[in-house]
Write a structure and sequence with these properties.
The complex is a heterodimer. Chain A has 18 helices and 14 strands. Chain A is α/β, with parallel strands linked by helices. Chain A has two domains: 183 residues, D-Maltodextrin-Binding Protein, domain 2; 220 residues, Periplasmic binding protein-like II (D-Maltodextrin-Binding Protein, domain 2, 3-Layer(aba) Sandwich), CATH 3.40.190.10. Classes of the chains: A alpha/beta, B alpha+beta.
Chain lengths: 445, 545
Amino acid sequence: MKKRLLSLLLLCTLVFALSGCGEKTLLNKKKPVSLTFWHVYGEQAGSPMDLLVQEFNRTVGQERGVQVQVTGMSSASQIGGYLKDAQSGGKDVQEMPDLFTCHIIDALELGEDNLVDWNEQFTPDELSDFIPGFLSDGTAEDGRLLIFPVSKSTQLLMCNGSGFDRFSAATGVGYEDLATWEGFYDAAGRFYDWSDKPFCALDYPIRAVELNALERGSGDFYTENGWYDTGNAVFKESWMQFARSLAQGHVVVSDLYSNTQVMTGDVLSGLGSSAAILYYNDTVTYRDGTQEPMDLRVLPMPKTAGADALMTQAGVGLCAYRTTEQKAEAAALFVRWLTEAERNLDFVAQTGYMPVRSGAFDAITDYDNFPAPAEGYRQLYAALKAMREDYTPVSEPRFEGYYGRVSVLYDGLRRLQQELPKRAAAGEDIDALAEETWELLCSIH
Amino acid sequence: MPEFLLSKLKRAKPSMRRRLLLYMGALAALLLFSLFAVLLLLGQLKSPREEMKKSLTFQMEAFRSDVTSLWRNVSVMGVHLSEDMTALIEERVKDFDALSGSADALEQLEASMLGPLCQYVQQADCSGGFVLLSVSLNPDAAADSFSGLYVQRSNAEHTTSDLLLYRGMADIGRQHRVMPHRKWAQEFCPADFPGLADQLEAASAPIERACRTTELLTLPGTTEQAILLSVPMVGADGRVYGLCGFSVNQTYFSAHHAQPSAVSSLACVLSDAAEGLDIQKGLLTYPAGGFCFVPDELLAEKSLRGGLSAFVGTELSFVGISEPFTVAAGDEAPHDLTVLIPKSDYDRALLKSRLEAAGVLMLLLFFAVSCCLFYTRRYLRPILRDIERLKDESGGTQMTFDELQPVSARLRSHEQTITVLETEKLDLQGQVEHMQSQVVDTQEQLDDSLAEIRRLAYLGKKELDPADYQKFLEGYAKLSSKELEICAALAKGLSARQCAEQTGNALSTIDTYRKRVYGKTNIHRVRQLRLCYALMQLEQAEQDK
């Protein structure tokens, strides 16, 4: 009798427990919840992300009662500032969005407690499908997953093919010469001599210097306060290599985005995010109005000869501002839908990013739905594939205030690059000019 | 028939319960009527469709006001921009046609124009501004392009954002810290800006009346949609230098013209006039903090009751109102303003309204039933109980209503009276029965007497001489009343003594009268008298029959 009672009790417990495991949702189709969304995909131009949001609203969002509204589009470098402004509030400032893309450092500045921990919304099994390195990029020190990976980018060299062909024909420099930093800077010098124009505009020159230094074996060169150890000789040598080229006008720090300088014919190439491919026009337009086809060529980032190559692992992810449990669930629904394998592949393939699911990158090899110019995209993914195979990814620094200091550095370099080439042409010592840029870096704390 | 029913009703005498029900029903109807009348007077009694129409009309007025203000601002600023740019051209350019193909000359002109243009863009309610010159760096007509400047807000949703150079010479932009747009191009290609070439061709003074807007166009290289308002730049000699104006794009419009509304799920659209609604050809904005997903497909417009329109898509439908709106003075065709909400919300509002009405009615019904039950339990039943108690012989001592105590007392008094009367009635009935039995006995005696009379008459006929009987009759007719009385008593067989006792006379008196009777009737013996008397009565009875 006791055994029967015990069995009955256990059965009841099990039934209650299992009924508690049923899917409980806070979403209501009849009362849809709206999520405002700021993103950085396709700033100034529009992107497939907006189309995906439309599709989500039309399908799953409609069925489950979630509506996503894109209320802001900016760049990865600007969105952090806009988010901070929105969080602070005030007149003429937009309200804080429910969902946004940003770097982990921006997320940390917003406050971990103010953000949704995606670990609470996704099961470990679901998360195991994503590339671990991408997940760790968005994870805070206490283990909270604040940035959900949607796409990742790296830096690539994008070249005006038409112009390079003329340059190559005139000087014998080929694309293969751009495989190493040495070859790259040498080609830059030869192009400057040939055309009197900078060869390349770099969007993130400090990152190129960092990777170069690491490849050379500099070791850790970050200080405790999130800047650079100026006593690191290898780091300085890498910097000076870049600085000498900058001082002579062979390369420049891009005025805003390298792609516009390539499109206006001011430079022959741009070293920037793989996602910049979305913005390249089909033609290059020179000052006098003449145009020629862009014939975009995409090459892997140069590496240090004889060293293990490194590539940056960049890119924002999705972050949700913690407001209500219903909105957190709605955000998770959107993110889950957005990162479904096939959809994620389509999205990244049209925006120049890398997919975030394990094994998804290989599928791009056979992908045949690239937007125009398809050849440019094919080259982009060929370069990315080569880098995935030969390069080791390195995450970006995540020190507080780091990107503000980087911005100060770039503004200083932009000022210097206006005068240093003239002084170099006037016969001043190149190393001394380059030393001025180093002093600029050292002056930033 | 109604008269018949009325008269029937008038004649009808309903029970207390029915009468009460009737009066309660009439009272409830009166209360309901009063309630509806008050609600009607206060304007609270409207159909949900009317409410929806009113709400959407109010929203439309707010939207129209906002859009009118926006385009008035842009038009006025456009006219000022045109005047300034025209003055600048006339001041700096001696031979306008010589600008074609001259990069240096155009660069100088654009450099002088960029600063003022940026100031105008920062001040105007717009996402960008442009100056389109009717010259080109490519003098070759086949190139089909126009030089000029087009600056845009970098992130139109942020008011503090920088400006970008969307069209124009890149170096000029960089010098003014107006960086080239990611989809920069040096010149305007008319094919990319539908309508501008036509407006340039039709441009003329006065410029205030020549303000025109384009249809909603997708800015080349981007997915951003915008409406451009252009104003011709006309020189003093009537020469048209080009167009200038401002653009309002989707991002800016939705960010800076969020509508004040209590309805969160609402969309307001400024679109090209067309059959149906296509938001791909319209600028869309929402309430502050609200959103309403509208699919990017053509929504067919259908009329609904109450002046509303339905906008039907393949999967989603909406309800709203639409009206034409002239954006600029020179527009040949108006645009459309549309305010809409999801049909599901509209249906839900109708359902809610109906449920509320049903709920109110149910509440009223419940209230009425409860009142009736309460009234019945607390008032009617005690009255009926008291009435029942009034019927009880012992009632009246525990009455619920004191007002019925006198009635009860009077009733008790009446009951006692009735009891006494009934007792008396019973007594009387007993007496009547007794008397009836006496009557029966008397009748029997009478019958016996008649039988005796008949027997005597029979005997008398045999014994009496007809002449004697005739003499008796003659003498009988002459008898006095007293003598008749004595005669009747003797004829009945009473003795003289008995007659004296019956009449109260002395025996001698009786004897005297007997002698007189005998003498007058010629009777000699009492037996002869009884026979004649019986025979006479028999004859009288037969005559009466």
